[in-house]
Amino acid sequence: MKTRSTLKRPSFRRLVCAGLVAATLAGCGSPVKRNDDLGGLRRGPGNTPQRNVTDFTSGLRCMDETLFAFGTRDVVFLLEELRDESRRLGVGTRDMMISAVSEMTRRSRAVRLVTFGNDNQNIQSLLQQLEKRTPFGILPQFDIRGSVTQFDEDVVRKESKLGVSGLLEQLIGFNINRNTQINVLGFDASVVSVPDLTIVPGANSKNTVIVARDQSGVSDGVASIQKVGLSFSMNVSRNAGVAQALRNMVELASIELIGKVTRVPYWNCLGLDTNNPEVKREIEDWFFSMRDDSERTMFFQEHLRNRKFYDGPVDGKSYTALQEALGAYKKGFGYAENTPTDVAFFTEFLTRPIPAPPEKPFSTGPIAKAPTDAPSSTAQAAVNTSSAKQGSASSQPVANASPAGVPPLVVGTSKPAYKVNEEIELAINAQRSGYLYCYIQPAGGAIQRIYPNRNVKDPRIEAGEFLLLPGGQGFKISADKPGAQKIACLAAQREVYNDLPPPLRWGDFEDISLKSFVDIKAAFEKAGKLPVMMDEVTIQVTR
């Protein structure tokens, strides 16, 4: 019986193919030998040469918690178009930063981002049709600007290739390639002050990231399965993308910029500690950049009040209560009360957990106002009108107690009726020292907080003080639409905003979900566990 040679050929080819494929795949499993300089440069897309951080999602949430703990609020940024000056990436850098800031403000609501720009033409047209004069009620304090400033490709390239040729190439028909490409990407951003457009010193982010792109795959006959109308391809490759590297760098920039402007220890959210030389220098810059002792005093007044050690004004004056609060805080750290309030203590104040506060904060009591702070005739007339409406005559308040028949808090306006878009002036008189929050509700509209705000941070009002709002303090109160417009002010015995739960930490000039002033008063009383004074006034708005 004769056997035809053609019957043995296919099995021989299969044997050759199987052997070569096995040998080739074994070769692919071996690491490609790299030069020392290439191995040192290779980093993942989440890394920067300065910081070994690969994922900033947890860092953004950490920043949210830090801003919440520090009582940061009413910080508003305008975001410019973050352009790609290299003209080669074509990615949505601005949208990346919008997403990052959104993630950073889930609980704290400390930062608000105004996305006014060339890509908002539809919204702007709609607002004009609805007769809204501006897409945001008041100017932001800061403007973020930046761009992709650098994209250098093929800084280092390493390539290896394994294939077959000749007769075997016709039988098998593939090559296996492995190459590593090193790219350098740079992103710069800074913050400028609005409206004078001057740079905020030190509020910048300038980082570069080294992107290693490793590719290993089958070419010249990629393994594929073809069917009618369908095509399935398999390509063994690993590509660390430049766009993902840019996203991580934008998230890093968001943490840096907002941390530097608000002066909270943002480095904790990047896995760095105070022993890092750059962190040490940052803290020293913050401390020595405060112009004088009064500015440092205001810093400690604000934060000690938020931390329930101090109860008094934030005015840069060194009261006995402030020194007692600082002494108690230092004792909480295990230091002597007379430990210097220098850069070393400033570092600890920023970075260490807050010690247990005293049972009651150290209080300045009522602060006497200077003669230059006497009420204007407009303020006095407004308060007289409101007091008379309540059935009592206005009188000059005494100390921190309410005289018989005199309301503890009086809110008035210079006249009972206004025209649409006319500016409203409020006059507030308190018989007791406290912390003032004022709200407005247009006819049929939502309630908004108008005081304190991004321009006036300190809500403290002293006993006997006549406060005129806005009083040339950089914001306006306008009659919005025809009808009855209501204004109410609350005065709490201590600062309670930081004790409000996240859903109630509304920003200034932002619609509030609560429907009435009574609901807001109840929320403040629940948070502070103390009674809250309130007075409201209604004005008529006409065309």
Describe the structure.
The protein has 543 residues and is of the alpha/beta class. It contains 13 helices and 20 strands. The chain has helices at residues 9-29, 36-41, 57-69, 93-104, 121-129, 166-171, 242-262, 277-289, 293-306, 320-332, 343-351, 377-389, 517-528; strands spanning 75-79, 83-84, 111-114, 142-163, 175-193, 198-219, 224-227, 230-233, 310-311, 362-363, 409-413, 417-419, 426-430, 434-441, 447-451, 460-461, 466-469, 483-492, 511-512, 532-542.
Uncertain stretches? 1-54, 218-240, 391-402
Q: Largest sheet, described in full? A: 7 strands, mixed
Structural Rg: 33 Å
Name the quaternary structure.
single chain
Per the CATH scheme, the topology name of the largest domain is Rossmann fold
Helical/strand content category: alpha/beta
SSE blueprint:
Layout: H1 9-29, H2 36-41, H3 57-69, E1 75-79, E2 83-84, H4 93-104, E3 111-114, H5 121-129, E4 142-163, H6 166-171, E5 175-193, E6 198-219, E7 224-227, E8 230-233, H7 242-262, H8 277-289, H9 293-306, E9 310-311, H10 320-332, H11 343-351, E10 362-363, H12 377-389, E11 409-413, E12 417-419, E13 426-430, E14 434-441, E15 447-451, E16 460-461, E17 466-469, E18 483-492, E19 511-512, H13 517-528, E20 532-542
Parallel strand pairs: 1-3, 1-4, 2-4, 9-10, 12-20
Antiparallel strand pairs: 4-5, 5-6, 7-8, 11-13, 13-17, 14-15, 14-16, 14-18, 15-19, 18-20
Helix pairs in contact: 3-4, 3-7, 4-7
